Each structure stands twice: as C-alpha cells, then as structure tokens.
Amino acid sequence: MIKTLNQLGSGETGVVIKVYGSGPVKRRIVDMGIVAETLIQVQKLAPLGDPMEIKVKNFNLSLRKSEAALIEVRTQ
Q1: Which residues contact 41 (CB under 8 A, 6 or more apart)?
Q2: Which bin fits 21, alpha (ψ -120 to 50), beta or left (φ > 0)?
Q3: Is the pLDDT of residue 76 over 90?
C-alpha cells in the first residue's frame, strides 16, 4: 500500500519510494539519508502529532508532518 510518511502511525514501517518537493527542504531530507529504497520506521509521535521521530539507517531523526508529507512510502 502506498502512503506518505505522515500517514504512518507509531511503530509502522515503510520503504521510501520517492521524495517530493524542491529546494532546501528536499535537500535536507535527502542529506539525512532518506532516499529511494530506504527502510523507515516511525518511532514516536509528539502529543499533538508534530514532529514525528523516525528511524533511518540505525539513527533517529525528527521530521515535521509537513516534511513527512513529501515522502512517499510503500508499507509492508
């Protein structure tokens, strides 16, 4: 099933299909290692859902929901 990263709940995993957007936001996402075929797991969500903590390549990152909406994933 194809979703955007912001639609995943705590504990869910997905494989990155594509990163949308342009400019510094996309560059920041790609620089963090979020590229096609990368496994991502949602670790935690803040009390109001923003930001979200994800695990990518054995390290944890925090992303805003607006940034996570630019990442298309395939859930397992």
Answers
A1: 11, 12, 13, 54, 55
A2: left
A3: no
Residue linked to tokens 């909406």: 69
**25, two tokens:** 């936001």
Which domains, from first to last, does the chain contain? Answer: 2-75 (2.30.30.90)
Q: Which residues make beta-bridge pairs with 19?
A: 71
Partners of 74 in beta bridges = 2, 15
23-55 residue pLDDT tens: 999 999 999 899 999 999 999 999 887 899 999
Token pair 């996570």: residue:
68
What CA–CA distance (Å, rounded) separates 74 from 40?
Answer: 10
Helix (H) or strand (E) holding 48: none
